[in-house]
Automatic annotation (TrEMBL):
One of its GO terms (biological process) is translation. GO terms for molecular function: structural constituent of ribosome. This is Large ribosomal subunit protein uL3m. Keywords: Ribonucleoprotein, Ribosomal protein. It comes from Symbiodinium microadriaticum.
Amino acid sequence: MWRTPLQPIKAWALQTHRSHRFRHLPLASTEHQVFRQSQRGFFASKWQKRLGHLLEGRRRPPAPDVPDKEQLTNDFGIKPCKPVLGSKRTGVLAYKIGCMSLWDEWGVKHMVTVCQLDRLHVVQSMTLQKNGYEALQLGLGYRSIHRLSRPELGTYMKAGVGPKHHKCEFRVSSDCLLPPGLELSVRHFVPGQWVFVSGWSKGRGYHGVMKRWGFSGGGSDFHGHKKSHRSAGSLGQRGIGKVWVGKKMAGHKGPDPRCVNAKVFRIESTRNLIFLKGALPGYKGSVVKISDARGKTALKNNHIRLPYPTFVPVPGVEYPVTIQEPPPQRDPFLYPEQPLYQPND
């Protein structure tokens, strides 16, 4: 019922129905305001408790405090060696944790991928006299003993390490062989070093030739044809009545083996984390192989002194836990003093 301008406003009307016609009017009493606020606070705290109970299993513990320095021991008595022509260090296995952004001293943003060397041990050492080749078998992570065979358990017991989730062999030279049971850390690499990262790419499902192989397609002015701008085109020749093996056609894209170049931006030895610039193949939690760069990329590491056969600590010496790639000496945000063109040009 529409009220007249002279009709008094009843308190129960404001308490039960606050329509747009009564928004400009004050509440009936202060007691009602207090009641509504207490009621609102009760329901808010009620749902907060419910949400807190539901999210209790998803909450992760806070990150541990990372010290600035640490002291390491050399339990296996490994001695450092000088590299010679043909020296080849071992690679490592790591779990892909995820991606994040980091900033250097100049304020430049770097997109990095975090990998963790979780309980990485040397399981076996292959020698030329016993096995016919020189390599190291590394084990990563942990796996239940109920899912392992007896020969595998015997191998782990002989090396003195726990059961591993993933194993892999890396070819090494004779001067870079390591004893079984040794745990490798991220100090095996040096920040600023270029490495090769191998893994399996993500599965993308069924795709056409343009998405899968990068075909250019028929174009917008595809003369004489309709509805075939993204087709594969001719699949063979006139004289040979077959499709050759390996022909690039539409199909399932990924997972495929991939190897990318990456640069070590930062290492953290407490949690065995290595921060690599750029994106790496695989899902979160997948296993990747990280090894020293070879070929043309290895020439970029000539100014870096890599530890051979691996990092060997000196007892009693404190080493920094977090080591980052040194920033450039020149501010990258300043324009060069040299002009882009000469006045006589």
